[in-house]
């Protein structure tokens, strides 16, 4: 979560990382001891284990000025090349087929938006043709596609 006040401070509201949550993981072995959020470094944990992502104010101000989009489970603004990505809308199979280039469309959907094979099988040709919604973004700096999905 990012509010206008957070944006001016260059910090997000944070994400919970309770003590010991990452024991035995790659994060536990990091030299800094800090996980990252969306590729951004995090502050030290507060008493409840929440860590704020440290993001340049200019990036967060752009984010809080962006209109939200409608989802079933909640919006997740994505970042790429150190900036907020541009929301491109909901995609169906036809959109992935068009954007995949020489890549297998289901593999492109998995790589760009984490859509697993079983969810791909239920995804409709058009964005409104199934209970699965894939929300896609593109990077205005390099053109990369990323996204996330949910289901009603």
Would you give an account of this structure?
By secondary structure, the protein is α+β, with helices and mostly antiparallel strands. It folds into two domains: 1-65, no CATH class; 67-152, no CATH class. It contains five helices and nine strands; from the N terminus they run αββββαβββαααββ. The protein has helices at residues 4-9, 57-65, 93-99, 105-113, 117-120, and strands spanning 15-16, 36-37, 40-41, 50-51, 79-80, 83-84, 86-91, 132-138, 145-151. A three-stranded antiparallel β-sheet has the order 7-8-9. It has a two-stranded antiparallel sheet with strand order 1-4. It has a two-stranded antiparallel ribbon with strand order 2-3. A hairpin with a 2-residue loop joins strand 5 and strand 6 (83-84). The chain starts with a helix and ends with a strand.
Shape: elongated
Low-pLDDT residue intervals, each spanning 5 or more residues: none
Helix-strand pattern: HEEEEHEEEHHHEE
Compute the number of structural domains. 2
Terminal residue distance: 22 Å
Overall helicity: 10-25%
Major β-sheet annotation: 3 strands, antiparallel
> What Rg do the Cα atoms give?
17 Å
Which strand order does the major sheet show?
Answer: 7-8-9
Structural class: alpha+beta
């Amino acid at each position: 979560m990012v509010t206008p006040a957070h944006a001016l401070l260059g910090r997000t509201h944070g994400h919970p990382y309770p003590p010991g949550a990452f024991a035995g993981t790659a994060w536990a072995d990091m030299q800094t001891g800090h996980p990252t959020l969306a590729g951004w470094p995090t502050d030290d944990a507060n008493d409840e284990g929440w860590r704020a992502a440290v993001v340049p104010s200019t990036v967060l101000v752009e984010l809080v000025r962006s209109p939200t989009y409608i989802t079933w489970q909640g919006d997740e603004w994505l970042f790429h090349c150190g900036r907020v990505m541009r929301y491109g809308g909901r995609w169906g199979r036809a959109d992935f087929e068009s954007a995949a280039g020489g890549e297998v469309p289901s593999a492109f959907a998995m790589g760009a938006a984490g859509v697993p094979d079983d969810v791909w099988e239920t995804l409709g040709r058009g964005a409104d043709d199934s209970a699965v919604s894939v929300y896609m973004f593109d990077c205005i700096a390099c053109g990369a596609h990323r996204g996330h999905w949910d289901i009603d």
